[in-house]
Amino acid sequence: MLCLNSHQPTGLGLPGMYPPIAGSEWVTGDTATLIKIVMHGLTGPMKVNGQDFTQVAPIPMPPMGLDDQQMADVPTYVRSNFGNQSRAVKPAEVKAVRDASNGRCTFWTPEELRK
Predict the structure, then answer these.
(1) Cys-Cys crosslink for 54: which of 45, 72, 96, 114, Cβ 3.0 to 4.6 Å?
(2) 52 in a domain, yes or no?
(3) Which residues pair with 89 in a beta bridge?
(4) CA–CA separation, 113 vs 26, rounded Å?
(5) Residue 17 has pLDDT above 90, yes or no
(6) Is residue 1 part of a domain?
(7) Which of 55, 35, 30 has the alpha carbon at shortest distance from 115?
(8) Could you tell me which residues are beta bridge partners of residue 46?
């Protein structure tokens, strides 16, 4: 799985460096936010599950370069594993986010995603 190296097999991440995907509001919340993260990557300090991740990881979360079905499968997997119990992501949702962010070629920051 693509998320394993950083977020670990448990989904608990690495303290201070890679945030958890287990129980994360970034994973179980708004699907468009998670799709954007998987599609374009993420960098910068953030708060996850009440913990500050202020040290920017040596390698930011990279974009995955997946098609719409694959891009729906990854968030669906993390949203339904690691103790998470959120609904599946549909390829149509991915297409809508892809169309809305057409031309974007930089990582998202947590500040941008909170807007």
Answers:
(1) 45
(2) yes
(3) none
(4) 10
(5) no
(6) no
(7) 30
(8) 53
Q: Tokens at residue 12, please?
A: 């608990």
Range of the domain at 79: 8-114
- 14 vs 28, more confident: 28
Collect contacts of 85-92 with beta carbons under 8 A, ≥24 apart.
Answer: 85/28, 86/27, 86/28, 87/31, 89/31, 89/34, 89/35
Tokens of 80: 């339904």
| Residue 36 domain flag | yes
Q: How many domains does the chain have?
A: 1
Which DSSP symbol is given to 55?
S
0.85 surpassed by pTM: yes
pLDDT tens per residue across span 30-77: 999 999 998 888 888 899 999 888 866 556 666 667 899 999 999 999
Q: What's the CA gap between 40 and 95, in Å, rounded?
A: 14
